[in-house]
Amino acid sequence: MKKKRMRNKKNISVKAHKKRKHGIMDKEKAAQNVSPVVKKYWFQRYNLFSKYDKGIKMDEEGWYSVTPEQIAIRHALRCVAAIAKPKPVVIDCFAGVGGNAIQFARMCCSVVAIDIDPKRLELAINNAKIYGVQHCIDFIVGDFFQLAPSLKGDIVFLAPPWGGPSYKSIENFTLDFLKPRDGFTIFQFAQAITPNIIMFLPRNVDLQQVEELSWLSSPPLEVEIEENYLQNNVKGVTAYFGGAACH
Ligand code: ADP
Predict the structure, then answer these.
(1) Is 92 in the pocket of ligand 1 (CB under 6 A)?
(2) Which domain holds residue 70?
(3) Compositional bias (Basic residues) at which positions (predicted)?
(4) Which of 17, 67, 93, 138 has its CA 20 to 30 A from that of 239?
(5) Would the CB of 122 count as within 6 Å of ligand 1?
(6) Residues 88, 200: one domain?
(7) In the prediction, which pLDDT does 22 show?
(8) Confidence of residue 39 (pLDDT cuts 50, 70, 90)
(9) In this predicted model, what pLDDT tens digit does every residue of 105-160 receive, in sequence order?
Protein backbone atom coordinates (compact mmCIF):
# COMPACT_ATOMS: atom_id res chain seq x y z
CA MET A 1 0.00 0.00 0.00
CA LYS A 2 2.75 2.30 1.06
CA LYS A 3 4.76 1.45 -2.05
CA LYS A 4 1.80 2.13 -4.37
CA ARG A 5 1.18 5.54 -2.86
CA MET A 6 4.81 6.49 -3.30
CA ARG A 7 4.75 5.47 -6.96
CA ASN A 8 1.66 7.62 -7.58
CA LYS A 9 3.32 10.53 -5.91
CA LYS A 10 6.34 10.11 -8.15
CA ASN A 11 4.16 10.00 -11.28
CA ILE A 12 2.41 13.19 -10.30
CA SER A 13 5.65 14.97 -9.66
CA VAL A 14 7.11 13.87 -13.03
CA LYS A 15 4.01 15.26 -14.76
CA ALA A 16 4.21 18.51 -12.84
CA HIS A 17 7.88 18.80 -13.67
CA LYS A 18 7.18 18.26 -17.39
CA LYS A 19 4.41 20.86 -17.28
CA ARG A 20 6.67 23.37 -15.52
CA LYS A 21 9.49 22.76 -17.98
CA HIS A 22 7.05 23.16 -20.86
CA GLY A 23 5.70 26.41 -19.39
CA ILE A 24 9.20 27.87 -19.09
CA MET A 25 10.02 26.84 -22.68
CA ASP A 26 6.80 28.44 -23.96
CA LYS A 27 7.64 31.67 -22.18
CA GLU A 28 11.18 31.69 -23.56
CA LYS A 29 9.76 31.15 -27.06
CA ALA A 30 7.26 33.97 -26.56
CA ALA A 31 10.06 36.30 -25.42
CA GLN A 32 12.00 35.53 -28.62
CA ASN A 33 8.99 36.47 -30.75
CA VAL A 34 8.75 40.05 -29.51
CA SER A 35 10.63 43.03 -30.96
CA PRO A 36 13.80 44.22 -29.15
CA VAL A 37 11.98 47.36 -27.94
CA VAL A 38 9.22 45.28 -26.44
CA LYS A 39 11.50 42.60 -24.96
CA LYS A 40 12.54 44.72 -22.00
CA TYR A 41 8.91 45.46 -21.17
CA TRP A 42 7.80 41.88 -21.81
CA PHE A 43 9.87 40.71 -18.87
CA GLN A 44 7.87 43.15 -16.73
CA ARG A 45 4.53 41.94 -18.08
CA TYR A 46 3.09 40.98 -14.70
CA ASN A 47 3.91 44.46 -13.37
CA LEU A 48 1.81 45.87 -16.20
CA PHE A 49 -1.07 43.40 -15.93
CA SER A 50 -1.04 40.78 -13.17
CA LYS A 51 -3.52 38.75 -15.28
CA TYR A 52 -1.25 38.93 -18.32
CA ASP A 53 -1.39 35.15 -18.86
CA LYS A 54 -5.20 35.11 -19.00
CA GLY A 55 -5.17 36.67 -22.48
CA ILE A 56 -4.12 40.32 -22.13
CA LYS A 57 -3.47 41.91 -25.53
CA MET A 58 -1.01 44.71 -26.17
CA ASP A 59 0.42 46.56 -29.14
CA GLU A 60 3.98 47.94 -29.25
CA GLU A 61 2.96 51.36 -27.87
CA GLY A 62 1.01 49.70 -25.07
CA TRP A 63 4.09 47.88 -23.85
CA TYR A 64 5.99 51.02 -23.03
CA SER A 65 3.13 53.36 -22.24
CA VAL A 66 0.59 51.49 -20.15
CA THR A 67 0.50 52.54 -16.50
CA PRO A 68 1.92 49.71 -14.34
CA GLU A 69 -0.89 47.97 -12.48
CA GLN A 70 0.18 48.92 -8.95
CA ILE A 71 0.32 52.59 -9.92
CA ALA A 72 -3.06 52.37 -11.68
CA ILE A 73 -4.48 50.83 -8.48
CA ARG A 74 -3.06 53.74 -6.51
CA HIS A 75 -4.75 56.23 -8.90
CA ALA A 76 -8.05 54.41 -8.51
CA LEU A 77 -7.84 54.32 -4.70
CA ARG A 78 -7.14 58.05 -4.59
CA CYS A 79 -10.03 58.68 -6.92
CA VAL A 80 -12.48 56.79 -4.70
CA ALA A 81 -11.14 58.53 -1.58
CA ALA A 82 -11.55 61.96 -3.17
CA ILE A 83 -15.15 61.64 -4.31
CA ALA A 84 -17.54 60.85 -1.50
CA LYS A 85 -20.24 59.09 -3.48
CA PRO A 86 -20.90 55.43 -4.27
CA LYS A 87 -20.12 55.31 -7.99
CA PRO A 88 -18.01 58.28 -9.04
CA VAL A 89 -17.74 58.86 -12.77
CA VAL A 90 -14.15 58.92 -13.98
CA ILE A 91 -13.24 60.05 -17.47
CA ASP A 92 -10.05 58.42 -18.75
CA CYS A 93 -9.28 60.75 -21.65
CA PHE A 94 -6.38 58.84 -23.28
CA ALA A 95 -7.34 55.31 -22.34
CA GLY A 96 -4.84 53.38 -24.51
CA VAL A 97 -4.90 49.63 -23.80
CA GLY A 98 -6.93 50.20 -20.66
CA GLY A 99 -4.43 49.91 -17.78
CA ASN A 100 -6.01 52.72 -15.78
CA ALA A 101 -9.64 52.32 -16.87
CA ILE A 102 -9.63 48.71 -15.65
CA GLN A 103 -8.44 49.65 -12.16
CA PHE A 104 -10.95 52.52 -11.88
CA ALA A 105 -13.70 50.05 -12.78
CA ARG A 106 -12.43 47.47 -10.29
CA MET A 107 -12.69 50.13 -7.58
CA CYS A 108 -16.41 50.53 -8.43
CA CYS A 109 -16.07 53.69 -10.44
CA SER A 110 -18.20 54.20 -13.50
CA VAL A 111 -15.67 54.80 -16.25
CA VAL A 112 -15.74 56.62 -19.57
CA ALA A 113 -12.70 55.47 -21.55
CA ILE A 114 -11.84 57.61 -24.56
CA ASP A 115 -9.25 56.93 -27.25
CA ILE A 116 -8.89 58.27 -30.75
CA ASP A 117 -7.55 54.95 -32.01
CA PRO A 118 -10.24 52.24 -32.37
CA LYS A 119 -7.63 49.46 -32.47
CA ARG A 120 -6.29 50.50 -29.07
CA LEU A 121 -9.79 50.59 -27.62
CA GLU A 122 -10.38 47.08 -28.95
CA LEU A 123 -7.36 45.97 -26.96
CA ALA A 124 -8.71 47.85 -23.93
CA ILE A 125 -12.09 46.09 -24.27
CA ASN A 126 -10.38 42.71 -24.47
CA ASN A 127 -8.27 43.53 -21.40
CA ALA A 128 -11.27 44.80 -19.43
CA LYS A 129 -13.02 41.49 -20.16
CA ILE A 130 -10.06 39.61 -18.69
CA TYR A 131 -10.60 41.55 -15.45
CA GLY A 132 -14.39 41.13 -15.69
CA VAL A 133 -15.10 44.87 -15.64
CA GLN A 134 -16.04 45.66 -19.25
CA HIS A 135 -19.67 46.32 -18.21
CA CYS A 136 -18.51 49.21 -15.94
CA ILE A 137 -16.72 51.04 -18.76
CA ASP A 138 -18.18 53.08 -21.62
CA PHE A 139 -15.64 52.89 -24.41
CA ILE A 140 -15.75 55.89 -26.73
CA VAL A 141 -13.71 56.18 -29.91
CA GLY A 142 -13.04 59.85 -30.44
CA ASP A 143 -10.87 62.90 -30.07
CA PHE A 144 -10.83 64.05 -26.45
CA PHE A 145 -10.61 67.71 -27.48
CA GLN A 146 -13.78 67.43 -29.57
CA LEU A 147 -15.65 65.39 -27.00
CA ALA A 148 -14.62 67.45 -23.94
CA PRO A 149 -17.39 70.10 -24.12
CA SER A 150 -20.06 67.38 -23.95
CA LEU A 151 -18.45 65.29 -21.17
CA LYS A 152 -19.63 65.17 -17.56
CA GLY A 153 -17.80 63.43 -14.75
CA ASP A 154 -16.57 63.64 -11.15
CA ILE A 155 -12.88 63.20 -11.97
CA VAL A 156 -10.87 63.58 -15.14
CA PHE A 157 -7.89 61.28 -15.48
CA LEU A 158 -5.16 62.38 -17.89
CA ALA A 159 -2.32 60.10 -18.97
CA PRO A 160 -1.53 61.75 -22.31
CA PRO A 161 1.15 60.19 -24.54
CA TRP A 162 4.66 61.00 -23.32
CA GLY A 163 6.16 60.69 -26.82
CA GLY A 164 7.55 57.14 -26.60
CA PRO A 165 10.45 55.73 -24.54
CA SER A 166 12.75 58.57 -25.70
CA TYR A 167 11.15 60.83 -23.05
CA LYS A 168 13.73 59.38 -20.62
CA SER A 169 16.60 61.10 -22.40
CA ILE A 170 15.09 64.56 -21.87
CA GLU A 171 16.65 66.26 -18.86
CA ASN A 172 13.74 68.53 -18.02
CA PHE A 173 10.50 67.27 -19.54
CA THR A 174 8.46 70.43 -20.06
CA LEU A 175 4.72 70.16 -20.65
CA ASP A 176 5.03 71.02 -24.32
CA PHE A 177 6.63 67.60 -24.91
CA LEU A 178 3.27 65.98 -24.18
CA LYS A 179 1.20 64.74 -27.10
CA PRO A 180 -1.10 65.38 -28.93
CA ARG A 181 -1.12 68.95 -27.53
CA ASP A 182 0.91 70.67 -24.82
CA GLY A 183 0.07 69.98 -21.18
CA PHE A 184 -1.45 73.42 -20.54
CA THR A 185 -3.95 72.96 -23.37
CA ILE A 186 -4.82 69.42 -22.29
CA PHE A 187 -5.35 70.66 -18.72
CA GLN A 188 -7.59 73.52 -19.81
CA PHE A 189 -9.89 71.15 -21.69
CA ALA A 190 -10.05 68.88 -18.64
CA GLN A 191 -10.73 71.76 -16.31
CA ALA A 192 -13.80 72.75 -18.27
CA ILE A 193 -15.28 69.37 -17.24
CA THR A 194 -14.31 69.39 -13.54
CA PRO A 195 -11.57 70.87 -11.31
CA ASN A 196 -10.93 67.35 -9.94
CA ILE A 197 -8.10 66.20 -12.14
CA ILE A 198 -5.47 63.47 -11.87
CA MET A 199 -2.56 63.71 -14.28
CA PHE A 200 0.08 60.98 -14.74
CA LEU A 201 3.36 62.38 -16.04
CA PRO A 202 6.96 61.30 -16.70
CA ARG A 203 9.34 61.17 -13.74
CA ASN A 204 11.52 63.90 -15.31
CA VAL A 205 8.63 66.34 -15.74
CA ASP A 206 9.24 70.01 -14.89
CA LEU A 207 7.55 70.17 -11.46
CA GLN A 208 7.43 73.96 -11.47
CA GLN A 209 5.27 73.80 -14.60
CA VAL A 210 3.03 71.15 -13.09
CA GLU A 211 2.33 73.49 -10.15
CA GLU A 212 1.64 76.30 -12.60
CA LEU A 213 -1.23 74.28 -14.07
CA SER A 214 -3.20 74.99 -10.90
CA TRP A 215 -2.93 78.73 -11.63
CA LEU A 216 -5.03 78.30 -14.77
CA SER A 217 -8.01 78.40 -12.41
CA SER A 218 -9.14 81.31 -10.34
CA PRO A 219 -8.76 80.91 -7.40
CA PRO A 220 -5.87 78.50 -8.06
CA LEU A 221 -6.63 74.82 -7.55
CA GLU A 222 -5.14 72.82 -4.72
CA VAL A 223 -2.32 70.68 -6.08
CA GLU A 224 -0.48 67.70 -4.70
CA ILE A 225 2.37 65.94 -6.44
CA GLU A 226 3.66 62.44 -5.71
CA GLU A 227 6.34 60.23 -7.18
CA ASN A 228 5.24 56.73 -8.10
CA TYR A 229 7.68 53.91 -7.40
CA LEU A 230 7.73 50.38 -8.67
CA GLN A 231 10.34 48.04 -7.18
CA ASN A 232 12.38 51.02 -5.93
CA ASN A 233 12.41 52.77 -9.31
CA VAL A 234 10.49 55.98 -9.97
CA LYS A 235 8.10 55.22 -12.82
CA GLY A 236 6.27 58.51 -12.99
CA VAL A 237 4.82 61.48 -11.21
CA THR A 238 1.14 61.96 -10.41
CA ALA A 239 -0.37 65.39 -9.90
CA TYR A 240 -3.71 65.62 -8.10
CA PHE A 241 -5.71 68.83 -8.53
CA GLY A 242 -8.81 70.33 -6.95
CA GLY A 243 -10.89 67.84 -5.01
CA ALA A 244 -8.49 65.07 -6.00
CA ALA A 245 -5.68 66.67 -3.95
CA CYS A 246 -5.31 65.85 -0.24
CA HIS A 247 -6.58 68.79 1.81
P1 ADP B 1 -1.96 53.60 -21.71
O2 ADP B 1 -0.80 53.98 -20.86
O3 ADP B 1 -3.22 53.58 -20.90
O4 ADP B 1 -1.82 52.39 -22.60
P5 ADP B 1 -1.02 55.36 -23.74
O6 ADP B 1 -0.07 56.33 -23.14
O7 ADP B 1 -0.53 54.30 -24.65
O8 ADP B 1 -2.04 54.78 -22.65
O9 ADP B 1 -2.15 56.11 -24.41
C10 ADP B 1 -2.11 57.28 -25.02
C11 ADP B 1 -3.32 57.15 -25.90
O12 ADP B 1 -3.80 58.44 -26.24
C13 ADP B 1 -3.05 56.44 -27.21
O14 ADP B 1 -3.78 55.24 -27.21
C15 ADP B 1 -3.57 57.39 -28.27
O16 ADP B 1 -4.30 56.74 -29.29
C17 ADP B 1 -4.48 58.27 -27.45
N18 ADP B 1 -4.72 59.59 -28.04
C19 ADP B 1 -3.88 60.38 -28.71
N20 ADP B 1 -4.48 61.52 -29.09
C21 ADP B 1 -5.76 61.44 -28.61
C22 ADP B 1 -6.89 62.32 -28.66
N23 ADP B 1 -6.82 63.51 -29.26
N24 ADP B 1 -8.03 61.93 -28.05
C25 ADP B 1 -8.10 60.73 -27.44
N26 ADP B 1 -7.08 59.86 -27.37
C27 ADP B 1 -5.92 60.20 -27.95
Answers:
(1) no
(2) 64-244
(3) 1-22
(4) 138
(5) no
(6) yes
(7) 52
(8) confident
(9) 999 889 999 999 999 999 999 999 999 999 999 999 999 999 999 999 999 999 99
